[in-house]
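Translate structure to sequence.
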C-alpha cells in the first residue's frame, strides 16, 4: 500500500506531519529515563528518534514490516534494536517494555485487534500502550484536503480514498484496544499545524506514490490527475498557508 518506498520519500510526504506528532505523543505518555520502549510500525523513525532523545539509544527498540524503513532507521539511529517484522507477531518476550507505541499504524495492520494484543503482551503490567490514527471521521487527517479534491472531481465509485479505511478503524479504535486486552483507556485529539510557502511545497510529495493517497493518485489517468491537482490548488490558493492535521490518540494500560 505505497510504503515500500525510500524513507526520504515518506519523510517528505507524511513524515513532515508525523514528526511533530511524535513529539507531542511522547510528551502525552510521559516517557522518562529508565524506561524501555518499543515503537511498533516505526516507519522512517519519527517516534523512535524522539524516544531516543528522551530515553537513550539502548532503551529504545523498533520494528517495521518494510525493508527500506528498517534499513533507514538502522542507519539513522545506530545502536537502536530495529527489527523486520509485523505487529501481529512481535518477536519479543512477554512483559518486556514500559512503553509500547504504534503511531499511525493500526489501520494498516492485517489484524488490528491481534496487533494491539501483541503490544499488550510485550508490555509490563501497568505499562502504557499507545495507538494513534489520523481523524478521518471528521475529515481532519493529514491528507484530508487531497481526498476532498478527489471527491470533487473523480466520479464515484472510484473516489473511495483512505478516509473510508481510516474512519472505519477510528470509529472502532477504543473497541479494538479493549479487544486487545488494554484497560483504563484515555482518548484525546492531538493537532499539529505546518506552514507551507506555496501550493507546490504541499503538493509535490503526493507525486511520490507514498501511502494510500500516493497509490491512488498514481493509478488515475492523466486527465484525472491534472483535475485533482487543479482542484487542490483551488482549495488552498497560492500560499503561504497553514495545514492542520488531527490525530486520535488512545492510551491504555497493560493489566
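Result:
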Amino acid at each position: 500500500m505505497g510504503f515500500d518506498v525510500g524513507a526520504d520519500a515518506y519523510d517528505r510526504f507524511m513524515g513532515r506531519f508525523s514528526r511533530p506528532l511524535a513529539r507531542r505523543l511522547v510528551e502525552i505518555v510521559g516517557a522518562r529515563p529508565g524506561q524501555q520502549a518499543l515503537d511498533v510500525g516505526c516507519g522512517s523513525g519519527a517516534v523512535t528518534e524522539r524516544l531516543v532523545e528522551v530515553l537513550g539509544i539502548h532503551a529504545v527498540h523498533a520494528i517495521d514490516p518494510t525493508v527500506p524503513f528498517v534499513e533507514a532507521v538502522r542507519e539513522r539511529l545506530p545502536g537502536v534494536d530495529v527489527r523486520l517484522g509485523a505487529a501481529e507477531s512481535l518477536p519479543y518476550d512477554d512483559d518486556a517494555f514500559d512503553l509500547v507505541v504504534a503511531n499511525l499504524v493500526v489501520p494498516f495492520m492485517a489484524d488490528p485487534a491481534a496487533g494491539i494484543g501483541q503490544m499488550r503482551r510485550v508490555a509490563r503490567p501497568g505499562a502504557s500502550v499507545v495507538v494513534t490514527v489520523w481523524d478521518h471521521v471528521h475529515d481532519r487527517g493529514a491528507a484530508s484536503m487531497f481526498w476532498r479534491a478527489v471527491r470533487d472531481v473523480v466520479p464515484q465509485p472510484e473516489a473511495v480514498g483512505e478516509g473510508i479505511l481510516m474512519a472505519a478503524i477510528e470509529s472502532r479504535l477504543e473497541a479494538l484496544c479493549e479487544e486487545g486486552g488494554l484497560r483504563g483507556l484515555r482518548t484525546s485529539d492531538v493537532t499539529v499545524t505546518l506552514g507551507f510557502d506555496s501550493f507546490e511545497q504541499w503538493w509535490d510529495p503526493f507525486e511520490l506514490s507514498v501511502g494510500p493517497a500516493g497509490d491512488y493518485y498514481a493509478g488515475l489517468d492523466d486527465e484525472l490527475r491534472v483535475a485533482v491537482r487543479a482542484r487542490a490548488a483551488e482549495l488552498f490558493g497560492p500560499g503561504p498557508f497553514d495545514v492542520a492535521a488531527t490525530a486520535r490518540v488512545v492510551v491504555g494500560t497493560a493489566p
